[in-house]
Specification:
Blueprint: E1 2-6, H1 10-21, E2 25-29, H2 36-39, H3 43-46, H4 51-61, E3 64-66, E4 78-81, H5 88-95, H6 98-101, E5 107-110, H7 118-126, E6 131-134, H8 144-149, E7 154-158, H9 161-170, E8 181-184, H10 186-217, H11 221-229, H12 250-263, H13 269-281, H14 284-292, E9 301-305, H15 320-330, E10 334-338, H16 343-350, E11 356-359, E12 372-375, H17 387-393, E13 398-401, H18 408-413, E14 417-419, E15 424-425
Parallel strand pairs: 1-2, 1-4, 2-3, 4-5, 5-6, 7-8, 9-10, 9-12, 10-11, 12-13, 13-14
Antiparallel strand pairs: 6-7, 14-15
Helix pairs in contact: 1-4, 10-12, 10-13
Organism: Vreelandella sedimenti
Family: Belongs to the UDP-glucose/GDP-mannose dehydrogenase family.
EC number: 1.1.1.22
């Protein structure tokens, strides 16, 4: 099929590469705010596994063409929109262009996270001689290629047989099982995507509240987590407490869902609480640091492992580390931070600072001369450190684990003090 793909989001790049890979003729029009010349150099795209290699292969094979203006486009069978929530007006301008409106039988696929009902509105603009479907973006950053090309399910909002048939055929190469598509009306699919992320965020925030209570009561939250997860009505997914979630999609989907509530005349105290709890949890490690030193933080140096909002990405959008850094710097604390991918993004945001030293290769460099180690992002390189080496590097021999990836008793057996999220252990004394 001839596909015109519009947008500069990760979802746009992934769809462009994947659709061209399986033989579709793809013309990709990046958004003017981030043209291909800039997009091709950003760290979050280049660090996404397999993606750049497939983009470059598509360009070399000729199945993928990057265009700069709509007038360069051929008549498409499918228009694929993969824009940010702030680019609704751009979507409107594109579908209203006479080049597209005057054609017949185009299928408009809305892969953007727009307000509920937006697919229908765009359909009215492009003309009822065309068809539209909502195909919400469900990519997992850090494994975008795998989640697009090997999906376990796709939400498909469609109100006519043509849209469903064309979308199934367009994506047939990635999973031939018909049940992969969960078909429903367009508005239902748009709301379902937001509702899923709202539910996941609620589980995380609830578990973080339980972890805080466990800390107060002197209970190891891991016992509570295991007991809750073993209940078949609950399960273990998204049941790990931590120091807050971030990311460009998860956070904004929550805000989008709250906006939908308000626009419909409903106020959601639950969603507001979920977002408030998450913002508070981003300060958890700082509060533990404050408690340990009884507020005497002047002159301290903190080592941080991890800045990205999740492992496998170079992005720091809404990342917990940003809130943590502001709290540390407000107390005059020097920070030595290691991250294998997100350091350029961090410097782009906060600039060069005398109270920030960064490292991208050896994580132990960040710990040299530091008083405390804070684990913020659970990159695999951090999971099995040399504890005896850390004990020799950290002046206060304190580990603050923001993701509960370490065994408290084992860390304590190596002579370090451990504080996690609802977990703790002290070195044994004879």
């Amino acid at each position: 099929m001839r596909v015109l793909l519009y947008g500069s989001e990760l979802s746009a790049a992934t769809a462009a590469a994947a659709l061209a890979w399986v033989g579709h003729q793809v013309q990709w029009l990046p958004h003017a705010d981030t043209p291909w010349s800039a997009l091709s150099q950003v760290d979050w795209l280049r660090s996404e596994p397999q993606l750049m290699a497939h983009l470059e292969q598509g360009l070399a094979d000729g199945t993928l063409q990057v265009i700069e203006q709509l007038k360069e486009a051929r008549a498409p069978d499918v228009i694929w929109l993969a824009l940010s929530p702030a680019q609704r007006s751009s979507a409107s301008s594109l579908v209203e262009d006479p080049l597209l409106v005057d054609q017949q039988g185009i299928v408009l696929i809305n892969n953007s996270t727009f307000p509920v009902g937006e697919t229908e509105r765009l359909h009215a603009l492009i003309g009822m001689q065309h068809t539209s479907v909502a195909l919400p973006d469900t990519l997992e950053e850090g494994r975008a290629w795998d989640s697009f090309t090997r999906p376990t399910r796709r939400l498909l909002g469609c109100d006519d047989a043509t849209g469903e048939q064309v979308t199934r055929e367009l994506l047939r190469a990635f999973n031939r099982r018909s049940e992969v598509f969960q078909c429903m009306p367009r508005r239902a699919a748009e709301l379902t995507k937001l509702a899923i992320n709202g539910m996941l965020a609620t589980r995380i925030s609830y578990m973080n509240e339980i972890a805080g209570l466990a800390d107060t009561l002197g209970v190891d939250v891991e016992h509570v987590r295991q007991g809750m997860g073993a209940d078949s009505r609950i399960g273990f997914e998204y049941l790990y407490p931590g120091c807050g979630f971030g990311g460009p999609n998860f956070s904004r989907d929550l805000m989008r869902l709250a906006d939908v509530q308000l626009q419909s005349g409903r106020y959601s105290a639950l969603l507001e609480q979920v977002m408030d709890i998450n913002e508070q949890k981003k300060e958890t490690l700082f509060r533990k640091l404050w408690a340990h030193f009884a507020g005497e933080l002047a002159g301290k140096t903190v080592a941080i492992w991890g800045a990205a909002f999740k492992p496998g990405t170079a992005r720091i959008d809404h990342a917990p580390v940003l809130t943590l850094l502001e709290a540390l710097w407000a107390q005059g604390i020097k920070v030595q931070l290691h991250d294998p991918a997100a350091v350029p993004a961090l410097h782009a945001l906060v600039g060069k600072r005398d109270d920030l030293r960064t490292y991208t290769h050896d994580p132990y460099q960040a710990c040299e001369g530091a008083d405390v180690l804070m684990l913020v992002t659970e990159w695999k390189t951090y999971w099995n450190p040399d504890w005896h080496r850390l004990g020799s590097l950290l002046n206060a021999k304190l580990v603050l684990d923001g993701r509960n990836i370490y065994d408290p008793e084992f860390v304590a057996s190596c002579g370090l003090m451990y504080r996690g999220i609802g977990r703790r252990a002290d070195p044994k004394t004879l």
